[in-house]
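Hey L., structure's done. Input below.
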Amino acid sequence: MRDDLKSLRITDKELQDLTNLPVDNQLPIITDSLYQLGKLLLDKVQGSEGATVVFISSSVLIFTYLLFDWLVKDLVAWITLPSWILLILTLVWLSGVSQGVLYLWWKYKTRFFKKNMTSSLKVLLNDVSRYNSIIHAININDQIEAAGNPAVGIQNRDKVIKSLKFTKLDLVRALKTERILRENKAFILTNSDLFTHDLSSLSTMEVSEKAAEHDRLLNEALQIAMDVKQEMRKLQD
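Output:
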């Protein structure tokens, strides 16, 4: 991705900070984490640090087994199963318990997110998704151009990037405004006489004033995405 695009994308971390909500709440899967760990170790083993990784991994496994075997013989000597079988069963049990805890935490965050979701936030999140899709489409177009297809180059690229920067600023401002109104909704409703302006309509006014500009910028960038798709079809043909 080119440098001028890297800072334009609105990441899940930024969204979470702007909304103070778990917008990217995904259920962690223990087996997926173990798979990624195994893949990482395998890549290390195949690399220049292979001998060191094998030695450290083997040492950890042997130490863990010896420690577990000592605990089994000292604390639960009445169990007749081999210690290595007990170790496997213990790891499976711990994995199950951990997965259950992760599921409950994921379920809690999901309910919290749905409880605090507003119609304005839903619209803004959809706009952010469209905006990020445009960034991704431009990145694909750049890769196609870099592969030796100068005909797909974006005309007036600087103008497009500038428009996207303004769009990002507007989206960030709207998300910040929505969060302030959402988190202070009860106070605003019960103390409306303290405000010189009707803050409850602030977001609506903001959207009304910026709607045309947002649509223009997004449609302009969406046209780029359509051009990318068309050029990719030409290349495939």
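Residues 30-111 form one domain. The chain has two domains: 30-111, 118-236.

-- N.
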